Amino acid sequence: MPLPAPGPMSLVPFVSVEAMMKIVLEQGIERMLIDLARYIEDDFRRWEQFDKTPRIAAHSSEGVIELMPTSDGRSYGFKYVNGHPRNFQTGRQTVTAFGVLSDVETGYPVLLTEMTILTALRTAATSALAAKHLAPKGAKVMAMIGNGAQSEFQCLAFKAICGIDTVRLYDIDPKATGKAARNLAGKGLAVVPCTSAEQAIEGAQIITTCTADKQYATILTDNMVGSGVHINAIGGDCPGKTELHRDILTRSDIFVEYSAQTRIEGEIQQLDADHPVTEIWQVLAGKNPGRRDDKQITLFDSVGFATEDFSALRYLKDLLGSGAGHQMLDLLADPDDPRDLFGMIERYGKAVAAA
């Protein structure tokens, strides 16, 4: 006697790490970055439809574990994500994540997915989307300071979305720079390994900082940053963790995702609570011009916000609808009588005994 199969409403589409890698290879990473940026921009343009709250964080001396929820009233999404800078010492990722997208009407999840890879993609897509509106016109050279797990995604996103053709790489660990240079070989970029941050920013119109240490750091000092550049600061993303000297901030026009969260976690935690910033949705919706002139220093103080993950989940769900790989996970109890959960267990026990 066969055991009872999962009920029709018990199965949820699940995208594993292996399935995500296959999707990236089938779609092509630059195409995915471009498409993700489009979804992220669409959702930023309807910013006022979303529930917004700073992410819920549990901090420790070793790192942070966070939940990032949001809803547009029709769908609800959240991401679980950690940030543990010392993990690499034991062979673990600094950042790992998974996420869920649910139907608000029923509360049932419609997608469960790995988000370690997907977060790397959406972070890079968001950075390049912002730079498309903030970077100096015709920018071709980017300094990539911090050559860890996010660096290659950033470089390829700026190539695909902003049109850069040269990346200048620097990391305090030369092995990380070598890794990034090897991974980017043959990807259509001129790759220049550098031995200092000062060397990396030479001739760069865009400077991306993406370091991991959970501390107040000064990756860029004030004298390193000249007029007319765009800074994409993505490493500072929790209280007590920054990358830029405060004087750089006071010289820059600062753009953020959600100011209530960024004032806690971003570079601007160094500034007064009323220091003026512009939320990037206002630029994307045409309410703010973004870059105004060639001498302006623009700074995207990016810490990552839940709507970006929502966009990534929405994008992935649409991909699954077009046939992208996934499996169905028996995740939800689906008794014959929704009021008889206990009886479902009893009936399963009898079926097991009879099998």
From TrEMBL:
InterPro entries: NAD(P)-bd_dom_sf, ODC_Mu_crystall, ODC_N. Gene3D superfamilies: NAD(P)-binding Rossmann-like Domain, ornithine cyclodeaminase, domain 1. This is Ornithine cyclodeaminase. It comes from Paracoccus angustae.
